[in-house]
Amino acid sequence: MGRLAGKVAIVTGAASGIGAASVELFVQEGAQVLAVDRPESAIATAHASKKDIVSIAADITGDDAPKKIVAAALDAFGGLDILFNNAGVSGRAFVEEMTDAQWDHVNGVNVRGMFRLCREAIPALKARAKEKGRARIVNTASVMAFDTDYGLAAYCASKAGVGGLTRTLALELGKFNITANYVCPGAIYTGMTQGSFDKPEIREVWEKKAALRRLGQPIDIARGALLLASDDADFITGHELVVDGGLTLRT
Question: Which of 30, 53, 115, 178 has its CA 20 to 30 A from that of 149?
Fold first, then answer.
């Protein structure tokens, strides 16, 4: 029997990369999944005609998006066990040159959008935890939640915010048997990073930095999320799970 047998999950950023890999893995492990991504993404076709996956096009920053997303999961599957907030954006600009719009976009998706979806999902998660004994929130942060690089002020601030939000959720929701944890990917080969990592000189640098001497793949992060979403994580909450192939072992 799969590790998520009988579970219902929402996965955001589900059209490609880590989100798409997580949807596929969660379903393989027995879950029913609401796959969410922006209308302009490939969400309409990424999981088309696949059993136990319902796809919905929604921008998580939209005013009515949280309500629409949670309602869709409840309508499709009758409950909610796991909320995997994976949607995120990046951007690079020196602080001196960064516009308010750039700052607001990154933080609006990575923190505000996540917060609003968590808030909307909590009643459904509480109901499921009362019925089944547990429910889960898993959020995607980054090693940049505790590290940094040039031009990443907005991104680093947003991912540190994910950590702070998640730890507070863990504290507030623990008494309801809801855990909240976050995964911190390192250098992962996804659609967001492909443009850089397809350049051999850049790829080689980042592969050399990692103890495992390779870039991470979306499935590597999906497996970390699976652990935190599964019953095996019953006594893990407020935890930062670094999945970086040893990238951050050296300063």
Answer: 115
Please give the Cα distance from 174 to 237 (Å, whole number): 8
Candidates 238, 230, 241; CA nearest to 82 is: 230
- Structural domains in the chain plus CATH codes: 8-186+217-244 (3.40.50.720)
Give CA 82 to chain center in angstroms: 11
pLDDT (tens digit, 9 = 90+) per residue, 67-101?
A: 999 999 999 999 999 999 999 999 999 999 999 99
Q: Is 155 a catalytic residue?
A: yes
Which amino acid belongs to residue 108?
G
State whether residue 78 is helix, strand or coil.
Answer: coil
Nearest-angstrom CA–CA distance, 58 and 131 = 29
Which is catalytic among the residues 150, 155, 182, 189?
Answer: 155
Digit-coded pLDDT (tens) for 156-165: 999 999 999 9
What one-letter code names the amino acid at 150?
Y
Contact in structure between 23 and 14 (CB atoms under 8 Å): yes
- Can you give the pLDDT at residue 49? 86
Integer-rounded Cα Rg, in Å, for the chain is: 17
Q: How far apart are CA 15 and CA 13, in angstroms?
A: 6
Pair 185, 143: CB distance under 8 Å: yes
Taking alpha carbons only, the member of 230, 96, 82, 113 closest to residue 150 is: 96
pLDDT at residue 251 in the model: 63
